[in-house]
Amino acid sequence: MLDQARVMRALENVYDPELHQSIVALNMVRNVAIEPSGRVALDIALTVEGCPLHQKITDDVNHVLRQDPEITDVAVNLSVMNEQERKKAFQKAFESAQQNRAQGATSAKPNVTPPTTSSNTRQAPVIGPLPGQGPAEGMMSDANKTVVIGIASGKGGVGKSTITANLAVALNKLGARVGIIDMDIYGFSQGRMFGAKDKARVNEQEKIIPWQVHGVYLVSMGMFVEEGQAIVWRGPMLGKMMQQFFTDVAWPELDYLLIDLPPGTGDVALDIAQKVRKAKLVLVTTPQEVATYVAHRAGDVAKRAHQEIIGVIENMSYVLCPHGDRMNIFGSGGGKALADLFRVPLLGQIPLESTVREGGDEGEPVVVSDPESLSSHVFLDIAARIKHRIEEEAAG
Ligand SMILES: Nc1ncnc2c1ncn2[C@@H]1O[C@H](COP(=O)(O)OP(=O)(O)OP(=O)(O)O)[C@@H](O)[C@H]1O
């Protein structure tokens, strides 16, 4: 008999394309109504408004239900989860990703046969260049060989700037020429981390001369205003600033340009995605669920922009006790769950060490101030993994 249980069983085979979980398990299916004619109407609550993959979910629901000979018609009404429901859905996805990992599975396997309708082949909309935007210049262009990597986090304080600084120095130690753009306009801190204080100077061509410290070239808002001074720029001004940091700086030839992005998924991250189409992304999170949850959103913007996510770095992962045990004071598993969600590697787990903070406060990233510390070794290891991956990609 055609009843709700049978409909729900069929829908267990429809997977959320981003969370890789059944839409039933994620509690996305609501208000299933079966009419005597065999018409099934149901609501699907999407995790985020304007979810770019809603058409895929709708197509898959139609596809699985229409395989039931007693179902004559399907009507899908889309709605959006509230904040609490969304948190639960993400939590469920994280737990499941962790479970899969524990069981040695690489990912949950949807067993829905993709329908062959043309609408199913529709991808998440690409965030394209802005109208009126000219061709990308210099290091922003695809033709330029500098590898641009944005360092992003969902929320502030997870160590994104610390990681940018140390990765830059670590890549330099591995023989690469590295620059940093401190695009964390409202919370710029790279000058402090590198002990650079001079105000901006320009060369004869009127280009800004980057700071050069510990082998790394660096530009930051700190060259123009004091740290802590409020900056009230909005969208277009920020975009212009970003462009200037790329094009109006006397950059030497660089192998890597790291961009310390502002936390969250705001204008700057989008601007980079639009204007520097080759830019890749590294996601930073702490092991806590909430940091991981918000980092997911940062990654989601990258995915929509078809930006490559190189991997995830988990910071403040553990404290190493004197007898060698690891204490997970901020919980555990967030970085790996996030990496599993995006199907990218967890590049490394950085311990919580006072030497990391001291190095940042004193203008010497820990990789310089305490190269034998555990964190320094982890930073070098992560830098080597990134470099290896980029070189492999370049080799085809
Ligand atoms: N692994 C670590 N061990 C100890 N302290 C750390 C570690 N990582 C970062 N910190 C410290 O945590 C604080 C926040 O780090 P940081 O400024 O890098 O975060 P952020 O994500 O860039 O923050 P925001 O975006 O708000 O600027 C700093 O004082 C930093 O020295």
From TrEMBL:
PROSITE patterns: MRP. Residues 96-109 have a biased composition (Polar residues). One of its GO terms (biological process) is iron-sulfur cluster assembly. InterPro entries: FSCA_dom_sf, MIP18-like, Mrp-like_CS, Mrp/NBP35_ATP-bd, NUBPL-like, P-loop_NTPase, YlxH/NBP35. GO terms for molecular function: 4 iron, 4 sulfur cluster binding; ATP binding; ATP hydrolysis activity; ATP-dependent FeS chaperone activity; metal ion binding. ATP binds at residues 154-161. Keywords: ATP-binding, Hydrolase, Iron, Iron-sulfur, Metal-binding, Nucleotide-binding. Residues 5-77 form the MIP18 family-like domain. Pfam families: FeS_assembly_P, ParA. Residues 96-128 are annotated as: Disordered. The keyword Signal does not apply. Residues 110-121 have a biased composition (Low complexity). Gene3D superfamilies: Fe-S cluster assembly (FSCA) (3.30.300.130), P-loop containing nucleotide triphosphate hydrolases (3.40.50.300). Belongs to the Mrp/NBP35 ATP-binding proteins family. Binds and transfers iron-sulfur (Fe-S) clusters to target apoproteins. Can hydrolyze ATP. Homodimer. This is Iron-sulfur cluster carrier protein. It comes from Sulfobacillus thermosulfidooxidans.
